[in-house]
Amino acid sequence: MRINHNIAALNTHRQLSTNTANQSKSIEKLSSGLRINRAGDDAAGLAISEKMRGQIRGLEQATRNAQDGISLIQTAEGALNETHSILQRMNELATQGANGTLSATDRTAIGDEITQLNSEIDRISTSTKFNGQTLLAGTFGSQLDTTASGIGVGNAGVTAIDISGATASTTYTIAVGAVGGAGTVMLDDGNGNVQEVALADNTAGVLDFDKLGVKISVNSTWDIATLAAASVGTGTGTIDTTASAAVNIQIGSENAAAQKLGISISKIDATSLSTAGVDVSSSATAATAMTTIQNAIDVVSAQRSKLGAYQNRLDHTINNISTASENLTAAESRVRDVDMAKEMMEQTKNSILAQASQAMLAQANQQPQGVLQLLR
Questions:
Q1: ∠86-92-95 over CA atoms, to 5°?
Q2: Are 216 and 171 in contact (CB under 8 A)?
Q3: Does any domain span residue 164?
Q4: Is position 335 within any domain?
């Protein structure tokens, strides 16, 4: 028998400490509802859980983004609905004006109403806004509509075309007349980055400007910022927008092109619809106005159809994001949340073991008392 070291008591104390610590952990898990409260509980599980949490929160925000996109689309579509109604009324008035039985006074009254209706179309175009952004004035989505005709270049002459607000996703073209002659195409971004391409007459190719991220196709037309040619002839040229930069709606939790939806809305006003100058002063001009207005109706219909397609896509996007978020939440729960029934069982076990250890420690502390019996 030894009295300096009570091995039984030391062993029992160690077991008591272990059981008490395990009981404390069980109580912490039960009170928080989480299996992982700190990295020490499960380092790998914590890393996986945090990554999932980031994805879940990103998807939740993507859902709100998509809902904002739908609200924007509904705002624009509602305004276009009223524009449609105005155009239908204008078509009705033009049809009335095409009737030869009307007097000059009648036609003047019809023209006055059409003028006011055009003014209302312009007002709708400039006043339709969402979160401070004008939707129908041609500025939403960096829409650019520029035309220049009759571009002629003489010997050693330089013609510069300055385009403000240009973006990498917008293409500008100049069609050169049939008269031949080699030339030079120079693309300048205004920051000192210039790329020069020599062109033979009637050539085709692709012009790349990597610093701007612009890729321009050349096929009997030249995409340029500046053209200098020895002899181009008297051909005409037009600049038109074939693509516009869209406002991106982030519909995913990652920075990827597939998780963005670009929305662009064309300019819808009396000028762009060509209704600003319709004339109903005679039966013939009123008949022409009917065609113009019907074309304008088709333009608005096409724009509304595009917006409807955007909205339908966003509806499906929200449904898909909700499903993905639900599945990720379930997966994250399996990693991080505690199984309450199992942990209650562990807590009960550790509690009993701790109480038993306390009782046994008391017994172990009594063992050295037996030495006193030998000293009597």
A1: 140
A2: yes
A3: yes
A4: no
Q: CA–CA separation, 175 vs 197, rounded Å? A: 17
Q: Evaluate whether 28 touches 37 at the Cβ level (below 8 Å).
A: yes
Distance separating alpha carbons of residues 36 and 165, to the nearest angstrom: 52
Could you tell me if residue 184 is inside a domain? yes
Q: What is the extent of the structural domain holding 212?
A: 144-243
* Distance spanning both ends of the chain, measured CA to CA: 16
Which residues have CB under 8 Å from 211's CB, separation 6+? 189, 193
Give the residue ranges of DSSP H helices in 98-203: 104-127
pTM reported for the whole predicted model: 0.62
Residues 6+ apart with CB under 8 A from 347: 23, 26, 27, 30
Q: pLDDT digit string (tens) for 285-342?
A: 999 999 999 999 999 999 999 999 999 999 999 999 999 999 999 999 999 999 999 9
- 292 in any annotated domain: no
Contact 268, 83 (CB under 8 A): yes
Contact 61, 318 (CB under 8 A): no
Task: Count the domains in the chain.
Answer: 1
Q: How far apart are CA 305 and CA 317, in angstroms?
A: 18
DSSP 182-223: -EEEEEE-SSS-EEEEEE-TT-EEEEEETTTTEEEEEESEE-
CA angle 231, 232, 238 (to 5 degrees): 155
